[in-house]
Amino acid sequence: MKVTMTVNGKAMSAETEGRTLLSSFLREGLGLTGTHVGCDTTQCGACTVHVDGQPVKSCTVLAQDVAGKTVTTIEGMANPDGSLSVIQQAFQDNHGLQCGFCTPGMVMASAALLAENPHPTEDEVRHHLKGNICRCTGYHNIVKAVMSASGATSQKLAAE
């Protein structure tokens, strides 16, 4: 079947089987390999993308169920000139990544949080990101990056 959706602002289509997961469709059907697949069970969050503005773990959603919708992947997070978005830059500036495997999902989850709550507390950031697993960083710098991207200052983070 042919599946069409708007991905990162462009109408895109590809032939796929009805049982194809959105993560596979994006990676293999459309060549957008920034969306990572870590667990296939929604536990790790590496595959997080936005569907119609909402964060979705793409490893458990069928591509056909997203037909006609708007999808944003990590590739769509950069500024129009190709420079890093505020969130991506904050992750870089605050060392919110190490191996980078979880980073696309963390950035996408963080963007969803900041769209809903532009000035979250540290506890709100930690709560929102609990569905995303990072095996390298210990989360401190990821939280610091999200707080930095929000423009918020935290005395606790500044003191550390």
TrEMBL record:
Coiled-coil intervals, chain numbering: none
KW Metal-binding (keyword) present: yes
Assigned keywords, A-Z: 2Fe-2S, Iron, Iron-sulfur, Metal-binding, Oxidoreductase
The UniProt record lists the keyword Oxidoreductase: yes
Entry superkingdom: Bacteria
SUPFAM superfamilies, per database record: 2Fe-2S ferredoxin-like, CO dehydrogenase ISP C-domain like
Molecular function terms, GO-annotated: 2 iron, 2 sulfur cluster binding; metal ion binding; oxidoreductase activity
Record domain 2Fe-2S ferredoxin-type: where: 1-77
Pfam family, one: Fer2_2
Name recorded for this polypeptide: Carbon-monoxide dehydrogenase small subunit
Species: Cereibacter ovatus
